[in-house]
Specification:
about 15% helix, mainly beta, four-stranded antiparallel sheet, 2 domains, Lipocalin, 6 helices
């Protein structure tokens, strides 16, 4: 099951605040003439709002997106220089500005009026946002060429609720709102307010996959609600003495060849470890190594096998490119609140 894919966190603080929303976007881009998977993790809690920018074997940086509601100070544009020595000495500089950033309701991810940029040896190589002119004015970077849009390969989102869970994603250039509702042993999936799928008798069909449509685009949908079904059975039989009702369901929406899933970092990694540490019977479980994949759920294996390459890093750039064939995956972790 999903929890056993993660090692028991020794000494990890269990009192860290639970996110209100947590979103990870995985982009394929070029940094210092090398193909790179760039991971951006947006995290919002009651007391903080942050962004972790991560490139494997290169750098990891966490910046404040917006001060807490208890702060009297406003964020300012910032930058950070990082020196890496992979094959040659390279100077990477990361720029950000969330001073006027606007957000969709309850979302940790900035929607407009912001920028995130990365330069290598004073050459702009990655840009996200809509304030490129302000970046150039502040940084002094010279635009000697057009910056190609980074390919968004995958999106992971952790949403929290009681019976209803909302996620938003862009499929082939079209934005959609997805609502997942689960109650009374029935799963409803709604896209832009319209019911796309109903799954009954979840006690027997706690895992599965079906095809649905979003704006005329065929999407492969996978679900795994074993944790929910198992927790409900434990509570009904009064066997869950620790009151562990915070199980999560796993849902995947996949187009084309699917996405790429680098390991979890920062607040996302802490959330999964905290979930494991609170699971009943954890002390009796053997310690295992944290998997680089987001979980070992059967539906993730099915999603991987249904594509030509899945998460394989050996895939050609054409099969991994969002722009070339529309390969994209949205992975939703839906966490039940007490």
């Amino acid at each position: 099951m999903i929890p056993v894919c993660f090692s028991h966190p020794k000494g990890e603080a269990s009192s860290s605040p639970v996110p209100q929303n947590l979103i990870t976007c995985i982009y394929q881009t070029q940094l210092c003439n090398s193909p790179t998977y760039l991971t951006l993790t947006w995290s919002k809690t009651l007391f903080s709002h942050s962004l972790t920018i991560y490139a494997a074997d290169s750098f990891s940086l966490t910046v404040s997106v917006y001060p807490s509601t208890f702060s009297f100070f406003r964020n300012r544009p910032g930058s950070k220089s990082i020196h890496v020595t992979h094959h040659h000495y390279q100077k990477i500089k990361i720029y950000w500005d969330f001073t006027r950033a606007e957000f969709t309701r309850n979302s940790a991810e900035a929607e407009s009026c912001f920028y995130i940029a990365i330069s290598c040896n004073s050459r702009l190589e990655f840009f996200l946002g809509d304030l490129q002119n302000e970046l150039i004015r502040r940084s002094g970077l010279v635009m000697t060429r057009h910056i190609p849009e980074a390919a968004l390969l995958s999106r992971r989102e952790h949403v929290f609720g009681h019976k209803s869970y909302v996620s938003r994603a862009d499929f082939l250039g079209s934005k959609h709102e997805i609502v997942i509702e689960c109650s009374g042993g029935v799963l409803h999936v709604k896209v832009d307010g319209e019911t796309s799928l109903v799954v009954k008798r979840l006690g027997w069909k706690f895992r599965g996959n079906e095809r649905i449509y979003m704006g005329g685009v065929e999407v492969e949908f996978f679900w795994d609600v074993f944790n929910w079904v198992n927790n409900d059975d434990n509570i009904r039989n009064d066997s869950d003495k620790n009151g562990n009702r915070n199980g999560h369901g796993v849902f995947i929406f996949q187009v084309g060849d699917g996405g790429v899933w680098p390991e979890m970092v920062g607040p996302e990694k802490r959330l999964m470890r905290k979930s494991l540490s609170s699971a009943a019977g954890l002390a009796a479980m053997p310690s295992v190594t944290l998997s680089p994949s987001p979980s070992c759920s059967s539906v993730l294996q099915w999603a991987e096998e249904s594509s030509d390459c899945g998460r394989s890093s050996s895939c050609s750039s054409s099969t991994r490119s969002y722009g070339s064939n529309g390969g994209f995956s949205l992975l939703v972790y839906a966490w039940k609140k007490d």
